[in-house]
Design a protein that fits this description.
By secondary structure, this protein is of the alpha/beta class. Helix content is 41%, strand content 17%. The structure holds phosphoenolpyruvate (PEP).
Length: 254
């Protein structure tokens, strides 16, 4: 079976109700690409309105709490996300690992909570510039995977992994295609050793300064099953050419 590419936008802390028009435009134009999955992870407060506005599109969150409910001021649970019409969530984004000091164990618990609710979980991993310069990029990412992958990928919910080198996020710097390919191959190998054959169908996204001008080259790298896109997902005019590049790329045979 061929694996479709997944292009997910991460709006971070951007977006007001006036930006719903961008979501409508992205959803409408994406429908022409039948071989690509498109998702938008918007600020929590926009999820319900966005999912009502584009009920056939995948709208998601940028984080969920691992607990079902309780005294966790300011947090949302996977069940709440589902209730608001959400279909997916990012977990373990480097901005949360750094600013909120999220540990691998916490990210693992979040991914398990999301999958248990039937939500797609996009689990982010990635090395810092220091770690890459010290030759520790692959070992760092594999250690993050070991600590934060869920015990098992659920059969009725999707786990995806996003490789996002921290130094490439929002900087305009992108690893070479050889570096991306090497890292994705290492991630794939770890997924297979962890989950057996199921590890072959976990989509591995690349994230970090993906834009219209570099998307085709990145999607052509073996084991790149899509992209997690930050800045270039905010405007339909920037995001849609990335979706088009994914549609034009070869799908990966499982
Ligand atoms: C991200 O933060 O997930 C991301 C990939 O950001 P950008 O595309 O802006 O580098």
């Amino acid at each position: 079976m061929a694996l479709r590419k997944l292009v997910a936008g991460n709006w971070k802390m951007h977006g007001l109700s006036s930006d719903l028009a961008e979501i409508l435009e992205i959803a409408a134009a994406s429908q022409q690409y039948e071989n690509v999955d498109v998702a938008l992870c918007v600020p929590a407060i926009l999820i319900e309105r966005a999912s009502r506005a584009v009920p056939d599109s995948a709208i998601g969150a940028q984080d969920v709490h691992h607990a079902e409910k309780g005294a966790h001021t300011g947090c949302i649970s996977a069940q709440m996300l589902l209730d608001a019409g959400g279909a997916l969530t990012i977990v373990g984004h480097s901005e949360r690992r750094n600013a909120q000091r999220e540990s691998d164990a916490e990210v693992k618990a979040k991914s398990e909570a999301a999958l248990a609710c039937g939500l797609t979980a996009i689990l982010c991993v990635g090395e810092s510039l220091d770690q890459r310069e010290q030759g520790a990029a692959v070992s760092t990412v594999l250690a993050q995977l070991d600590g934060s992958l869920p015990e098992r990928p659920a059969s009725d919910a999707e786990l995806a992994v996003a490789y996002e080198p921290v130094w490439a996020i929002g900087t305009g710097k992108v690893p070479t295609t050889v570096e991306v390919g090497g890292m994705h191959a290492a991630i794939r190998e770890r997924l297979i050793s962890r989950y057996g054959d199921q590890g072959r169908s976990v989509r591995i996204l690349y994230g970090g300064s993906v834009k219209a001008s570099n998307a085709a080259e990145i999607f052509a790298v073996p084991d790149v099953d899509g992209a997690l896109v930050g800045g270039a997902s905010l405007q339909a005019a920037d995001f849609l050419p990335i979706v088009a590049a994914a549609a034009a790329a070869q799908p990966r045979a499982e």
